[in-house]
């Protein structure tokens, strides 16, 4: 609630025209600074955009940290991009890769999560109500770590264990490697899943998984999977 009040009070409207992705256009931007509560590494923001309006959420991230962003929206034409400290080409393009991003940022500075509607929805003055979850974890390693099985795209163990999901939350298993696809089932930390191989979609790593008996097969975000210990 404190973050939401800060967001509402700190939003600034700018009369600018910006192209932020193929098929998208923003005529008015609002800007908001994202800060985590003490001791927390993530936050959830609820907001809305309409028509050609866009919102820039700026968050300071150190080089080598992992920036994960997930968005659920009432409008299928609502997406987000992630831009680096110096702008330029988007590090993540939601209209191409879906509404789940998991990237290791290359440099320290302010990264921008841009929320917008695609042009087809904007010109109809549609509205989107969204929930945005932003998480920053880890730090720059001294040396490249040995690859975790869920970090690779080939080989690996026969089984994964679900780990790193926030308390009270669950990991979605989806029909396709996309945060936009339907949910097959949901699993919690500690559950064991059969490994069917991993692949990259944009900058997001997805793994084909199923229950140990082969049921509920689908795709899960690889960042929440580790090698099963038994």
- What is the count of DSSP helices, taking H or I runs of 4+ residues? 3
N-to-C CA distance:
41 Å
Instruction: Give me the count of strands.
Output: 17
Mean pLDDT: 80
CATH class category label of the largest domain:
Mainly Beta
The proportion of residues in beta strands is over 45%
Which H/E pattern describes the elements? HEEEEEEEHEEHEEEEEEEE
Radius of gyration: 18 Å
Query: Which segments are poorly predicted (pLDDT under 50) over 5 or more consecutive residues?
Result: 1-22, 140-147
Helical amount: under 10%
Major sheet: 6 strands, mixed
CATH topology (level 3) name of the largest domain: Jelly Rolls
General description of the model:
The protein has helices at residues 2-10, 94-97, 119-122, and strands at 12-14, 28-33, 42-50, 53-61, 66-73, 78-84, 87-93, 100-104, 109-117, 127-137, 159-162, 171-174, 183-187, 192-201, 204-210, 218-221, 225-227. The chain is globular. The protein folds into two domains: 2-137, Jelly Rolls (Sandwich), CATH 2.60.120; 149-227, SH3 Domains (SH3 type barrels), CATH 2.30.30. It has a six-stranded mixed β-sheet. It has a five-stranded antiparallel β-sheet with strand order 16-15-14-11-17, with no helix packed on it. Mean pLDDT is 80; it is low at 1-22 and 140-147. The protein is mainly beta. Helix content is 7%, strand content 48%. The longest helix has 9 residues, at 2-10. 34% of the residues are buried.
